[in-house]
Amino acid sequence: MSRKFKKPDYEKTLDLQVSLRDVLPPNHLARFTVEIVSQLDLSSIYQKYSDEGAPPYAPELLLGLLFYGYATGVFSSRKIERATLRQTQGRLYEVLPFRFIAGDMHPDHDTIAHFRRQHLAELKELFVQVLLMAQAMGYLQLGNVSLDGSKIHADASKSKAVSYKRLLAIEAYLKAEVAELFAMAEAADRKQWPEEMNLPDEIERRQQQLERLAEAKKVLEARAQARYEAEQAEYEAKIRRRAEKAAKKGQKPRGKRPKPPTPGPRDKDQYNFTDPESRIMKNATNSGFDQHYNVQVVVDHDSRLVVGNWLCDHPNDQQAALPTIDTVPPELGQPKAANLDTGYFSQNNITGMEARGIDPYIATGRSPHHLGWRSYFLDNPDPLPEDPSIQEQMAHKLQTAIGQAIYRLRKSTVEPVIGIIKEVLGFRQFSLRGLLPVSGEWTLVCLAYNLKRFHTLRYG
Hints:
Elements: H1 10-14, H2 20-23, H3 29-38, H4 43-46, H5 59-71, H6 77-83, H7 92-101, H8 109-118, H9 120-136, E1 145-153, E2 161-163, H10 164-187, H11 199-249, E3 270-272, E4 279-283, E5 288-300, E6 306-312, H12 321-325, E7 337-340, H13 347-355, E8 359-362, H14 374-377, H15 390-399, H16 401-408, H17 414-424, H18 435-459
C-alpha cells in the first residue's frame, strides 16, 4: 500500500499575495527606525531646502535608509539604491525593509550620497536626540563609562602616499628636469627633442607636480612642528619631575637624562595624495601599516550605548582622551567614572578627567593573563611608597575592589561595541575623505549602532 503525501502546488504558491505588514512585524528594526526618525526634530535639515525645482525626497525617507543601512552593514549608496528596487537580485528578507522605509519609492544612489554629504553636521545633533529619547524611555541613566579607540581604514591606498625623504628626492629630480627643459626651450633648436614632444606641456606638467609636492611638504612640516611642540612639552615635564624628585631626596638626579626631541620632519613621515588628512597607522589586525583614521567612542556601562564619539588623525590614543570625553552631551548628565586602557595613560589625562568631575581609572600597563582569584576578590592593594608618583597612585587605585570592578567592565562594554561595529556591522572603511566628512560618517556609524542597541533594549 503506497503512502499519501501532502504535495505543494507551486503554481498556486506563485500567486500568493505577500503583505509587508506580515513580513515586517511591529518589533522589526525597519519599523523601529521609521518610528524613531518620525520623532526627530529635523528643522535644521529642512532649512537647507529651497522652494524651487521638483519636489525632493523627504529627509525622513533618506535618513531612514541611511540609518537602517548602516545598522545592517549596508554602507554603499549604490547598494541602498538597489535594495529599494521592486525587482532586485538581493534576498527578499534583506531588501523588503529598505522598500518599506523608502515607501516603495526609488531614490537613486546620487541622491542618497549627496544627502549624506550635505547633512553630516546635523548628524551630531540627531545623535544627541536619539540618546535623549533612550534616556526619556528609561534605557539610559548615565553613570560609569568606558573609553576606547580603534583604527578604521581611510578611503585611500598607502600606495598613494609618499615619505618626506622620497618627496625631497622627487622634488630635486623634477626641478632638474624643469631646468633642463627650459634650457632646451631657450636654445630654440627643435632638433634637441623629438618631434612629438610638446615642450610647454612637459614643463607645465612637471610644474604642477612640483606644486603638489610643495603643498605636501608644507603639510608635513606643519605636522612635524606640532609634534615637536608636544614632545618638547612632555620633555620639559619629565625634566621638571626629575629635578623635583632629586630635590626632595637631596641628591643628584639618578638615571639617564631624557633625550630632547628633534625638530623638523622625519624621513619616514608620510603624506597621502588621495586623502591627505588620513595617516599611516599601525593595523592591530595584521600588525602592518596602512592608511587609517583613529576613531574613539565613550560607552555607558549599563546600557552599552555610545554616548560620545570622536575621530582624529593621531596614531596613538593619548591625545584623544579628553577631546573624546568632552563629546558626551551635557544634556545626558555627567559621567561619574571613566576607565581607559594603558594607551591613554598620562598625567594630563588624569588631571583633566578630575577637573571635569570624572573619576579616572586608567591602566598603567598591560594586565598579566591568568590572574588568581585573589586578584579579583581581595581588597588588599600593595601599600603606596613614600611620595608616590602619579603612576604608582593610579596602579594602587586600580588594585582596590572598586577600581578592579570598574576597570574589569571594559571587556563587556566598550570593547564589544567596537567589535560589533567592525565585525557584525562590517564597518572597516570610510566612504568619505577628509577629516570633517569622515568625522561626520563616524557619527553616523555610532548613531546607527545606537539605533540597533536601542531596538534591542526595547524589544529584547
